Request: fold
Amino acid sequence: MKTGSSAFAAVDLGASSGRVLLGRIGRDRLETKVVHRFDNEPTQTRDGLCWDLEALWSGMLTGLAAAARCADLVSIGIDSWAVDYGLLDASENLLHQPFHYRDGRTDGVLERVRDELGAEHIYARTGLAFQPFNTIYQLRSEPPARLAAAAHLLLIPDLLNHRLTGRLGTEPTNASTTQLYDPDAAAWAEDLIDAARLPRRIFGPLREAGTSFGPVTAACAGGIGARPPVVSVASHDTASAVAGVPAAGAEFAYISCGTWSLVGVELERPVKTPEGMAANFTNEVGVEGTIRYLRHVMGLWLLQECLREWRRDDPALELDGLLAAASDEPRGVEIDADASEFLAPGDMPARIRSHCEQRGLEPPIAPPAVTRCILESLATAHARAIDDAARLSGRRVDVVHLVGGGARNALLCRLTADACGRPVVAGPVEATAIGNLLVQARAAGLVGGRAEMRRLCRRTQDLTTYRPR
Reply:
């Protein structure tokens, strides 16, 4: 990497893998290099499906040590998926491995809590869409004894920040995904916490993106080989990804496309209308107090699970070859990409066949046909969400920015442009890590606010535009 710039480390944890990137940022320079990748596989325990926190911790430290060998780090920042958490006791010890949001322990809990508190009341307070894995429903699934013993709730990035620095705190972009946060007040919705019969004491101080947790502990410094400070970034990976969108104005929609597709617009204030609630739109916090008004679309999870199943019979099956074959397939049947039967892990090709048969549709069978079906269906879901976001928020959308791993999928980008009837700008692939790094650079005084961050991104990243046919 070029010299004459400042170095930062971004820890980016996804639902299936993690990586540590070294970023160098200077005037007209934003370069990233992945220095370590590691798997993130859940474990089935006696209590349910959990994350392997020790494996995440080990992979993260290995990556940070690799980054520290490459450069003197100005700071470290961590982002991850949302909603999942760890509970600590009064001595700040972890009470149980964090549960995976796809675990079945929350089955039926959403409906019970919604009946108790009223859907309209919950939405009016939080503006968050009703998803069965939201933190509020996970907490209501906790054994009473564990909740009674808990003194602190830390979402995944904050749990790791705590292990690195010994400091407690929760960053608002991730806090806003719990359905226990008030985006208007920029604070925990304490009345809702009380009404949900959850202990108010576990919801700790909020640390805005760009504030420092302080240096890593001496013990951690030994494993990393350095002792840089840890900066609270936009710790929800989608918030970091939106910070890394290379938009030139306000009239854009974004698709942060990976395991999930998060599709929406950036606003200054939340939109908590009954129409938005009915359309399952959510108001999550972004950098600089913005609102990510978006809808969750199932995303490339559908294809990832199909690949997992197909590779049982054909271990050599490669995604690139499959996408090339899918490009030659005729337009076929479309499925409801957001159907609830697709949420859990398992035999996805069989579930797609069953989904089609139950609706009187001819199911795709061969992998290229199934792949084409999935991508056509995702493109339609993307377009529907963008049109709904524009209609419900009043925000005009002239261009769509598709960032994340899905930006590599030229067929998906092309189909999305066709379905949206708007140009799709694909890239950067590393938008989440770039957003993480840019918030650290802003904290160090190297870049200004969102406009400058995005201008730097446009100048330095490879972007591809797909125009609707």
Notes: Residues 367-393 form the longest helix (27 residues). The longest strand covers residues 29-39. The chain has 18 helices and 19 strands. The radius of gyration is 21 Å.
